[in-house]
Known about the structure:
globular; binds 2-acetamido-2-deoxy-beta-D-glucopyranose; Alpha-L-fucosidase; glycoprotein; 14 strands; hydrolase; Immunoglobulin-like
Amino acid sequence: xxxxxxxxxxxxxxxxxxxxxxxxxxxxxxxxxxxxxxxxxxxxxxxxxxxxxxxxxxxxxxxxxxxxxxxxxxxxxxxxxxxxxxxxxxxxxxxxxxxxxxxxxxxxxxxxxxxxxxxxxxxxxxxxxxxxxxxxxxxxxxxxxxxxxxxxxxxxxxxxxxxxxxxxxxxxxxxxxxxxxxxxxxxxxxxxxxxxxxxxxxxxxxxxxxxxxxxxxxxxxxxxxxxxxxxxxxxxxxxxxxxxxxxxxxxxxxxxxxxxxxxxxxxxxxxxxxxxxxxxxxxxxxxxxxxxxxxxxxxxxxxxxxxxxxxxxxxxxxxxxxxxxxxxxxxxxxxxxxxxxxxxxxxxxxxxxxxxxxxxxxxxxxxxxxxxxxxxxxxxxxxxxxxxxxxxxxxxxxxxxxxxxxxxxxxxxxxxxxxxxxxxxxxxxxxxxxxxxxxxxxxxxxxxxxxxxxx
Length: 455
Ligand SMILES: *[C@@H]1O[C@H](CO)[C@@H](O)[C@H](O)[C@H]1NC(C)=O
Ligand SMILES: *[C@@H]1O[C@H](CO)[C@@H](O)[C@H](O)[C@H]1NC(C)=O
Ligand SMILES: *[C@@H]1O[C@H](CO)[C@@H](O)[C@H](O)[C@H]1NC(C)=O
């Protein structure tokens, strides 16, 4: 029943034209078809960069944990390393971005195989990575780098890569005096959205024309307070990106997993089953922080095996993976992140055919063999079985596909030669994998069988 209800809006989208107009209501906005590039892209890179990258300790929530929650770890860190009276704002000038080279970032991102990028244009600290007219002396052009980071990255990405350019934007700011006043009025007053957040968001979209607007941080305020529906109606009807822009579901208390564009539901969301609405798994390579942490140790970072598993599970279940990295205060992508990105790209070079532009199949994972996930290209009549463990016997049992003699073909991506398989009754096939030495393997960390003409 619930499924049927959820599917209705999806079905009714099929006839919708991009020229239709949207009313500032969720009922209308939620009917907008998601621009198709997003589902086809499958894999994006999230970048958390800001003044929090200066202390680069504990978390990008550093300011909040230190000053609001007064967590001992953060209070001690400040007492031990900075003079008395040092304020969070004083980190601003130290955010130098000295070695930031946008084309270098673009090269690394392109090598990762990702098809889009989402940069924190402003996190909850309020510091904007562009010269916002509404963030006086608390932006990257007036302070710190003295450069328009958003623009430099947008130019390099557009010029040197085939990635789409997306921007993260935090609606609220932890300590903005107007937000705090509004909050005291239980959000009856709306000074902060009217004088800060809304004008800034219009400026951001008009100036940098992002393909994704990844909002976050409702600060406990409802979408009425943010005028999210009014803004989205403008975004979808009039803005320069009205035909291509994709949004998420973080538009005010209660909207997550319910309203907006695609669903993010929670950080690191990975349900393990198919959802009737497009969704995204945003997660970080450093398990404990989105911003760079100097004290991280190697075991804090997900291994490439774990990352490939996240990608495969997510895509098989209809999601996109948004994998996060945190650059340093001087604009370096730490080599551990760079290595993971390049490894992902190596894996996708061989297996990308089973990821990009695929659809979920009737089964998301195999019911008998663990760590086998399926994707599908209906036009080509190919089901992809991605398996994360190479069986010692070299015989891979797949319980879900039904093969037919003389029609079904099986091949290992990156290898090409047709493989021998046998049919089991009433369903399932056993595939004999090729005998390969370590050096002959087309890739590591996970492999793909292309199954042509199975049902
Ligand atoms: C930036 O990086 C590119 C390589 O991607 C390099 O060609 C260029 O010289 C670098 N620019 C600076 C100013 O270092
Ligand atoms: C909300 O935004 C729309 C579109 O910009 C605008 O017309 C409307 O006046 C706004 N409403 C409030 C209450 O701010
Ligand atoms: C397939 O996925 C479901 C849902 O995550 C899980 O319950 C089940 O154990 C998985 N099957 C295998 C064989 O891994």
